[in-house]
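Researcher:
Attend to token order:
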Amino acid sequence: MIDKMNREQLQKISFEDIKGWADDNHLDAFNALKRGSSSSLLDLKISNRNSARKYFEKNYQPYKILNKFNEETLYTGYFEPILHASASKTEIYNKPLYGFPKKNVKKFLELTRKEIEEDVLWDLPILAWISNTIDLYFMHIQGSGTLKFENGIERRFVFDGKNNYEYTSVGKYLTDNKFINKNQISMQSIKKWMHSHPENIAIKYINKSFIFFKEDVINESNRSPLGQLGIRLTPLRSLAVDMSIYDINTPIWINTIIPIKGLGKFERFERLMLAQDTGSAIKGLFRGDIFFGNDEKAGYMKSRGDIIIFNKL
């Protein structure tokens, strides 16, 4: 993977140089690695932190990434929201969750978000009905969601494709145009702004990108959703990155800060992550999106950080 990178940005280091390396739960990281790797890892007898740590130290060479060209460094978070839904359209549940088109694919992929949402497109597979258009929009941003139906059944839906338009950040538009201060921008502040006036909801249409979904079975072995690369995500271990730069399942050590829920404070986040997902908004060497499971504090995550990549020997 380092062959894709500018050698000026790579500094070969030892594992002893990685702050916090000895304190991480290497077994958690190894198990996350197994979920995205070939079956050959299943044969390895690794069942404790020490043996997992030795595996990484024996099989990888760490490189610190140097920001030689003053690129923007940004680590955000995403999560799997839980929404209420109905299997049929009602007066309250009237916003469709669409599956990928089964016919006239080219036509539907050329439509913008606004064109798709202007009316109910019965030619598209309708997987469920949602009541809140803002929550549905953010389910699109997160790429998956668990729906709670009126009969008590829970069903998960995950990314199954998108239209032909690039992602545009609503948050960036709101800060650039001074609707929300840059130091206050978060998923929660965007939602609050959209809720504050009915006309504000239309801001979502500047993001012409639109996601189509498919069902993903929920059971004991599938507690977390599939990411866009088909890997079962691990909370606080799976990282969405720019896959034009990184190789899938690359171990990446992150040193950043994450919010402490409800306290307005932050804690250090130093741990081994795996490049197991991607997203339309994730562009660049120093851009990463941490999967938080079902924890909405992901919406507050917006931090700078340092990274170390592990190159396979």
